[in-house]
Amino acid sequence: MSHYNRRDFLSTLGLGCASVGATTLLSGITNMGLLNAAAAANAPVYTQNSYKALVCILLSGGNDSYNMLIPRGTSEYTEYADVRTNLKIPQEQLLPINPLNPDGKLYGLHPNMPNIQSMFESGKIAFVANVGALVAPTNLTTFNADQNLPLGLFSHSDQRKHWQTSVPQDRNSLGWGGRLADILYTNNANQNISMNLSLDGTNVFQRGNTIQEYAISAKSGGSIPLNGSTNNGFYQSLKRQTIDNLLDVNYQNILETAYANSLTGSKESSLEFSSAIASGMETYPITTIFGEDDLSERLEMVAKTIAARDALGVTNQTFFVQLGGFDTHDNFLLEHGELMATLDVGLQSFYEALVELGVENDVTTFTISDFSRKLVSNGNGSDHAWGGHALIMGGAIGGQKIYGQYPELYLGSSLDTGDGRLIPTISCDEYFAELALWFGASASDLEYILPNIGNFWTPTAGSQPIGFMV
Description:
Order of helices and strands: HHEEHEEHEHHHEEEHHHHEHEEEEHH
Distance between the termini: 52 Å
Radius of gyration: 23 Å
Helix content: 25-40%
CATH topology: Alkaline Phosphatase, subunit A
Structural class: alpha/beta
């Protein structure tokens, strides 16, 4: 039998720092991408700082983003109001914004987003208009011919996965954040804690061939310890000692050995992570007041982890955070309004904490969602659609702008596949490529990270896929 060390064996199986379950081995796409990435020697597009983090916020359920970023000019608002009917927000309630790249239209935000309005106006937030999962550029002709369409189009589970993998022609189990970490994880001096940290357990976005997500918790104040490992009661102490004894056994079976080593590694990583968080909060105490909702609590934990970056010995990190409740088929105006308020408070306090830590230029936060929703009302809500708007936040972005083309909102437009279900005009690949390049990937790495990027963008000297990172 060949002799494997723990890292080699777990990497081969696709097992993570705190994960025990195996994932798909190597797909054809990622194998070729890995070979190309290994040979890549391109210079980075963006200036590299000592620390960089990406914070992905999944608006789970399908954010109706046409009620987040709304046209407010007279004729454009009339078009919006006519198609949205009982789902429309009154024109006088819209929070006006003034993009630096005007397209001749006026825009406003949902009335529950005053903090985001202020951050947009101060250049800390931007929007990407009508972005979605695409295999290749698509129009009504190719749509009606069923050419190069994402699998399970308009399905929650498929579209949510496609946004995380950026391989919508396949039900791929590896995420683009995981593939990004496969390329860059050696940047971190400390290999005991994954580059990819999740506030919502396992996810597709951070799953790579080599790197998996490490789950942390806002409720526990950091790492998630093995059950009973922090309780000093008699039975918990006895159970803990029994587990330790079992983990000390030298197993002959390679799978048993790998499983025991993975649990041991999880226990050690948990202790190391908790110690680093405590050290980070002592060195960089955060005084920003966060909200009491789940999103704010998760983003506060992200801020605490970033504060511990020196103690953790890391220079690159990704974070995954989820805000659920966007499956708004009913009671739309109330429920979506509450979610916009939650997002508004969470992002404002998180950015304030980043400024306090002095890393606002080193952390870029971005939203993804299953899809946007139909412009036409289903009675008291809206049904599954396709292209929608995404939000990006950070000191390194070209803020106070709307990137891409905000679509016409009348029924029967050149993008309307039916009932205001709009074809995206910007692909997820372009959106994510810009983030990956800023994070430290080279242009030649993109073939592995985002296998479809060549369908939308060809790197040239000094070029950017969209242009929102500066």
